[in-house]
Design brief:
- This protein is of the alpha+beta class.
- It has 3 domains: about 120 residues, Endonuclease III, domain 1 (Orthogonal Bundle), CATH 1.10.340; about 90 residues, Endonuclease Iii, domain 2, CATH 1.10.1670.10; about 120 residues, Nucleoside Triphosphate Pyrophosphohydrolase, CATH 3.90.79.
- Helix content is about 45%, strand content about 15%.
- The protein contains 15 helices and 9 strands.
- The strands form 2 sheets. Strands 1, 5, 6, 7 and 8 form a 5-stranded mixed sheet that branches. Strands 2, 3, 4 and 9 form a 4-stranded antiparallel sheet that branches.
- The longest helix has 16 residues.
- The termini are far apart.
- It is an enzyme of class 3 (hydrolase).
Length: about 350
C-alpha cells in the first residue's frame, strides 16, 4: 500500500465524528476552520455550535454588530480572527451576493483566509484537489519522510507544500485531507505518539532513525516580553467602572477594568506613588484582591494584579472610554479571557 492508501485505510477505522464533516456548506466549514485555528477541537466545539445557532448563515453574520461577534468569540483569544471573519462576511455579501465562495482562488481573497484555510474549505465543500497543510500534516510528513528543513522557513514551506500536493488523493481530496489531519492529531501526536501500532512504522524515517522527538523542526520566534497590568475595581451603587480598549490593539473594542501599566512588579505603596495612579485615584490605598496572575499571549507575558478601590474614594479624573456598567449586565459585554475569568470569580 502507498502512503496515501495507508492514511485512508487508517482513517476509515479511526476517524472522529465532527459536526462540520456532516455538511458541504462552505459557510459552516469556514466557521469551523477559523475557530479551530490555534484552538483545540475540544475547546472550539462549543464556540462552533454557538456561532451556528446565533448566526446560521453569512447574511446574519455580516449584519451582526462587531460587539456581538466579539461576545460570541470571548475566550478563544486571537481576536483578530473574529474581526477578520466579520470583514470576510461583508466581503461575501458585497462581492458574491451572499453566496459563500467555494473556489480556492476566490477564498484567498477573504480577510483572514490563507492558503491552508482556502484549501480546506475548497476541498471539503467542493472536492477541489488542494492539499491542506496544517500543523498535523507538517508533523506527519516531516517524520515519515525525515525532513529536517524548518516548517516555518521559506524553503521548508515550499518543500512541504509540494510534497503534500503530490501525495494528495485527487479522486477523494476531502476525505484524504481529513484523514491526514486526523492521523496527525490522533496517531502521530506531537508528544508520545503511538509508533508501535502505527500503520506507517515500517517506512517512517523518523522512527527508524530515532528522530521522532526531533521532528518537525521549527525556527524559534522572537522572545516574549513581560508586561505588568494593574486593574482597578471601581464600584458605584450597583455598577462597576469599565474601560473599552481602543483600535490598533489585539484586544481592540473589548472591555476590561481601568488599568495602569508599570515597567515591573509593584508593591501597593509603589503603585500609589505612580503619577498615573494619582491622576485617577489620588492617594487612596487600594486593596489587592488576589495574587498576581500570569496570562500568556503570543510574544507577551502579562502579569495582572487586581485591586479594589474603596467605595468612598472620589475619582480625580476619568478617561472618555471609561463608563459605569451595571454589575448584573457585565456578561453582555465582550471581554478578553483574563477579564472574563476574573469576573466569574469575583462577581
Amino acid at each position: 500500500m502507498s502512503f496515501s492508501e495507508h492514511i485512508l485505510a487508517w482513517y476509515h477505522q479511526h476517524k472522529r465524528a465532527l459536526p462540520w464533516r456532516e455538511t458541504r456548506n462552505p459557510y459552516v466549514i469556514w466557521l469551523s476552520e477559523i475557530i479551530l485555528q490555534q484552538t483545540r477541537v475540544e475547546q472550539g466545539m462549543p464556540y462552533f455550535f454557538k456561532f451556528v445557532e446565533e448566526l446560521p448563515n453569512v447574511t446574519k453574520f455580516a449584519a451582526a454588530e462587531e460587539a456581538t461577534i466579539l461576545r460570541l468569540w470571548q475566550g478563544l483569544g486571537y481576536y483578530s480572527r473574529a474581526r477578520n471573519m466579520h470583514k470576510a462576511s461583508k466581503y461575501v455579501m458585497e462581492n458574491h451576493a451572499g453566496s459563500f465562495p467555494v473556489a480556492y482562488e476566490e477564498l484567498l481573497k477573504l480577510p483572514g483566509v490563507g492558503e491552508y484555510t482556502a484549501a480546506a474549505i475548497s476541498s471539503f465543500s467542493n472536492d477541489e484537489p488542494r492539499a491542506v497543510l496544517d500543523g498535523n500534516v507538517f508533523r506527519v510528513l516531516a517524520r515519515y519522510f525525515g525532513i529536517g528543513e524548518p516548517i516555518n522557513s521559506s524553503a521548508g514551506k515550499k518543500i512541504f507544500a509540494g510534497l503534500a500536493q503530490e501525495l494528495l488523493d485527487t479522486d477523494h481530496p476531502a476525505t484524504y485531507n481529513q484523514a491526514i489531519m486526523d492521523f496527525g492529531a490522533l496517531q502521530c501526536k506531537p508528544k508520545n505518539p503511538n509508533c508501535a501500532e502505527c500503520v506507517l512504522r515500517l517506512d517512517c524515517v523518523a522512527l527508524n532513525t530515532s528522530r521522532v522527538a526531533e521532528l518537525p523542526v521549527k525556527n524559534k520566534g522572537k522572545k516574549s516580553r513581560d508586561r505588568f497590568f494593574h486593574y482597578f475595581i471601581v464600584e458605584k451603587d450597583d455598577a462597576v467602572l469599565m474601560s473599552q480598549r481602543m483600535d490598533g490593539d489585539i484586544w481592540a473594542n473589548l472591555y476590561e477594568f481601568p488599568l495602569v501599566e508599570s515597567a515591573g512588579p509593584l508593591e501597593i505603596p509603589e503603585l500609589v506613588a505612580m503619577v498615573e495612579y494619582q491622576q485617577y485615584f489620588g492617594h487612596a490605598i487600594p486593596e489587592k484582591i488576589e495574587r498576581t496572575i500570569k496570562h500568556v499571549l503570543s510574544h507577551q507575558n502579562i502579569y495582572a494584579s487586581f485591586y479594589r478601590i474603596p467605595k468612598d474614594v472620589r475619582l480625580q479624573s476619568k478617561k472618555s472610554h471609561w463608563n459605569y456598567c451595571l454589575s448584573n449586565k457585565l456578561d453582555k459585554l465582550a471581554k478578553h479571557k483574563l477579564i472574563s475569568s476574573f469576573i466569574e470569580r469575583y462577581f
